[in-house]
Amino acid sequence: MTLDEIILNRRSIRKFKDSPVSRELLQQCAQAARLAPSACNSQPCKYVVIDDKKLKEDFCNTVFTGVYATCRDMALKAPAIVAVCAKAGGSITTRMGQMVSGTKYYLVDQGIAAEHFVLKAQDLGLGSCWVGWFNPKKAKNFLKLPFDVKCEILLLIGHPDEAPAPRPRKPLEDILSYNKY
Ligand SMILES: Cc1cc2nc3c(=O)[nH]c(=O)nc-3n(C[C@H](O)[C@H](O)[C@H](O)COP(=O)(O)O)c2cc1C
Fold first, then answer.
1. Residue ranges of domains in the chain, CATH in brackets
2. Residue 130 CB contacts under 8 Å (≥ 6 apart), including other chains
3. What separation in Å is there between the alpha carbon of 168 and the centre of ligand 1?
């Protein structure tokens, strides 16, 4: 698939077939994420794949509770949930940079890397959905993350069982300008 085809055809997939996702394919996705750029090359992310059925159930019942319950069912049915974990603040250099500029570089890095993961999944014929609506504190406890590591994004991965139409996007002229905002 060309890059244009991957970008054009990717959709958020919220219905998956029961068939498991092979770890070989997930490894290829992680390899694509590994090659993502990051501020000062700090590479703050780690990916915890939850593909054990019982563990996935426990995880979903923990992080999708209360106001976060809306995404629980679709997450439960995804064959694999990738917990995108990032060292909050990144490296010492990026932490210092963040103190000066106020920019949370580790979040930028996380976004780029997770999208590499998702685009590679698309390239391999897998479906994916970013999920940000869950309890990050409970996810951190569940995954026993170190004190300076956060899990603020999940990726649902599986074989698609739906083909959603493209969601609307702003026209190009609304988002692109030259020499002024
Ligand atoms: C940071 C982020 C968080 C998201 N969180 C959720 C979520 O919690 N639940 C959900 O169903 N979709 C979530 N999405 C998917 C978006 O709703 C989706 O990308 C958007 O509607 C555009 O649709 P498309 O991905 O099919 O092009 C999230 C996407 C991003 C990038």
1. 3-160 (3.40.109.10)
2. 12, 114, 118, 153, 154, 155
3. 13
State if residue 133 touches ligand 1 by the CB under 6 angstroms criterion: yes
Q: Judge residue 100's burial from the number of C-beta atoms within 10 Å of its C-beta, 0-12 exposed, 13-18 middle, 19 or more buried.
A: exposed
Looking at ligand 1, which residue's alpha carbon is closest to its atom 3? 132
Query: For ligand 1, what atom is nearest to the CA of residue 71?
Result: 9
Neighbouring C-beta atoms of residue 35, cutoff 10 Å? 9
Task: For residue range 13-58, list pLDDT tens digits in order.
Answer: 999 999 999 999 999 999 999 999 999 999 999 999 999 999 999 9
- Can you give the pTM of this predicted structure? 0.98
